[in-house]
Specification:
Layout: E1 16-18, H1 25-41, E2 47-51, E3 65-69, H2 70-84, E4 91-94, H3 101-113, E5 116-119, H4 128-138, E6 142-145, H5 147-155, E7 166-169, H6 176-184, E8 189-195, E9 200-204, E10 218-220, E11 224-228, E12 233-238, E13 244-249, E14 252-256, E15 264-273, E16 276-282, E17 286-289, E18 292-295, H7 296-310, E19 318-325, E20 329-336, H8 340-351, E21 360-365, H9 379-385
Parallel strand pairs: 1-2, 4-5, 4-6, 6-7, 7-8, 20-21
Antiparallel strand pairs: 2-3, 3-13, 8-9, 9-10, 10-16, 11-12, 12-15, 13-14, 15-16, 17-18, 19-20
Length: 386
């Protein structure tokens, strides 16, 4: 149904639909039909359909799709290549899948400069040992990872091969503590900010930041502009912006373009200081507990840092989330794969760092935390299980 070829004709008017081949057949076909319907209705040409992370969708079939023009993908790739000083001498290692904007972005960047791409998944899945072996064997120079993958490298105390000169890290919050541990092992990690809607990163730390020890600022790339609206949300204007959304809803197939005068308003609150982005959290992360406001993303960051300092393997076995409460409106719960004793140790230290209303009020002990292919917690599915 969908081509598995990793090479797209980046200059043709043909449309491409890139979906996760491991999705249930019925859901896969519904999303394929959605993209086909919308591109015909909107008369799209030269576009690539990619799914958003789906971490909040209640079902796979309800995953939001993004239409990116091939021109947008090329504009993004050109800007990233310029930022990383990428040339034909570089060897990219690819562990983000072809149907994810991060994986596809690597292919487009390499194509523009004639660089080589080395696939580094093992049987189409992330395996930190296989990845590390590939880096050394192929003398890879560049890569793009999500924080979960960096976490795995740190947990196994792998030291960066001398050939590696830059790794763009995006797709989630890159904790300061994790950044420091990765740098201590020599990994040339560059925090970044981007999304499927912008065809990958629009802001990334510089190569020069690798010469310093502190967590770097994340500066805008040449193809993007960012401003803050009156409500504190970041708005993006870029030559890599998406064309439209598409989604299966209870009312049927829906497509829409949320941009206003070429500006896309994100769900992220933040500010721009001297050309650098400072992300404060997503709108959905701001909740009220008994009338007191707090940011769930900040609390998750505190929990992860606390667990990481206690045992490098613990953060991946914990998930903090807000749950509805008749009395308080919302309250903080914790999901754990750890033993009761270890969980209580983490909760005790976490509690000392937060305000009383931000403390954990309930703990669930389960066997598995549902995650996406990139290691992101599937919050919608997790909430259903609880």
């Amino acid at each position: 149904m969908v081509s598995n070829q990793n090479e797209l004709d980046l200059y043709s008017e043909k449309n491409e639909i890139l979906l996760n081949p491991r999705w249930p057949k019925e859901d896969y076909e519904k999303l394929w039909a959605l993209a086909s319907h919308v591109q015909e209705k909107r008369k799209l040409q030269g576009h690539v359909w990619i799914a958003t992370s789906g971490s909040t969708a209640d079902s796979v079939a309800g995953t939001k799709l993004v239409a990116l023009s091939k021109k947008a993908l090329l504009n993004s790739a050109h800007s990233v290549n310029k930022h990383l000083n990428s040339t034909s001498q570089d060897v990219w290692t690819q562990v983000l899948p072809h149907f994810h904007v991060g994986g596809l972005g690597i292919e487009v960047r390499a194509s523009l400069v004639g660089a080589r791409v080395v696939p580094s998944l093992k049987e189409q899945k992330w395996d930190v040992h296989h990845f590390y072996e590939t880096l050394n064997a192929e003398k890879c120079t560049l890569s793009a990872l999500v924080p979960t993958q960096v976490y795995d490298l740190v947990t196994h105390s792998y030291k960066a091969p001398s050939s590696m000169r830059a790794i763009v890290v995006g797709g989630g919050v890159f904790e300061v503590e994790l950044y420091k541990k990765a740098r201590a092992l020599g990994w040339p990690v560059l925090p970044s900010y981007g999304m499927t809607e912008t065809a990958s990163q629009i802001a990334t730390a510089t190569l020069q930041s690798l010469e310093q020890s502190e967590y770097p600022s994340v500066g805008l790339l040449s193809h993007a502009k960012v401003q803050r609206n009156a409500d504190g949300f970041l708005q993006i204007h870029a030559t890599s912006l998406f064309t439209c959304y598409a989604q299966n809803t209870t009312e049927g197939m829906k497509s829409w373009d949320p941009k206003t005068d070429g500006w896309f308003t994100t769900e992220d609150r933040g500010e721009i200081i001297d050309g650098a982005l400072h992300i404060q959290g997503r709108s959905k992360d701001y909740i009220k507990i008994g009338g007191e406001g707090t940011n769930v993303a900040r609390l998750r960051s505190l929990l992860e840092t606390t667990a990481l300092q206690m045992n490098p393997s613990w953060p991946a076995k914990l998930a903090l989330l807000d749950m509805p409460s008749d009395r308080l409106g919302s309250e903080i719960h914790l999901v754990s794969l750890l033993s009761a004793d270890d969980t209580e140790k983490v909760v005790q230290v976490y509690s000392e760092k937060v305000l009383p209303f931000e403390k954990v009020r309930k703990i669930y002990y389960i066997n598995e935390i549902p995650r996406s292919d990139l290691g992101k917690v599937l919050w919608g599915e997790l909430r259903k299980r609880l």
